[in-house]
Structure formats: C-alpha cells, structure tokens
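Example 3.2
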Amino acid sequence: MTPPRRRRRSPAPPPEPPPPAGAEGGRQKNPERLYVVAGAGEDGARAAVDLVTLIVAHAEPPPSASPEQAALLRLCSAPLSAAELSAYLSLPFSAITVLITELLAAELVQARAPIVRRAVPDRSLLEAVMHGLQRL
C-alpha cells in the first residue's frame, strides 16, 4: 500500500485592506479638511467661546456661507451650546470656535453666557419651606 501523495497549497492571497472611513459615506477626518473648514483667519484671533456658551442665529445663511456655516446657522435657530454644535456637526471644538468667530464678526449670530443658577439657595427660603412643611 502506498501512502497518499500530498499536494502543495499555494499561499493564500493577502487580505484586502479595509476601505477608508470616508468611503461608506461617513465624514473622513483629516487635518487638511479641518483647515479648510476653519480657514486661516485674518489675525488668528478667536472669540471667547466656552463649551457652554449659547449661540443664537439672527439671520438665514447667506449664499456666500460655507456648508458648515450654513449648517451652524440653521441649527442655531434656537439657542444651542458650542458643545452641542460641535457634536451635531461632527467637528472638533477648535473648528467650531473659528466658525463662530467668523459668524460673530459678520453679525449673523449672537453669543451669550448661559443662565447660571445660584449654587446654594437662600437660607431664609429653605427655612420658610421647612416651616411650611412642618405645619402640614
């Protein structure tokens, strides 16, 4: 009885690399794209915008606005924080601050500080509530 002959296998082709992130319709993130979105800026100055600064649009997007600026203006018909805008537009906060600065300079949006509530309520108010509850 003769042993079976072994066949040599040809090496398997290497697996194909995964498609880039932008190929499935998702936004591809790279430094060049963010630079184009944010622009160089004339003097490099930015408005004092915090994560909780509320942005409100005053007008509709002008025809000369970039797609990101137009989207930001449409979103800001009601007050939104800069952090929310960053999340909705899928842009980093640094790019959002540049866009907001440009729109503030063009007077298309208004930035305002959020309404800050007092950290500790007034002692007399707490005592009045306590006495009212004790009377019940």
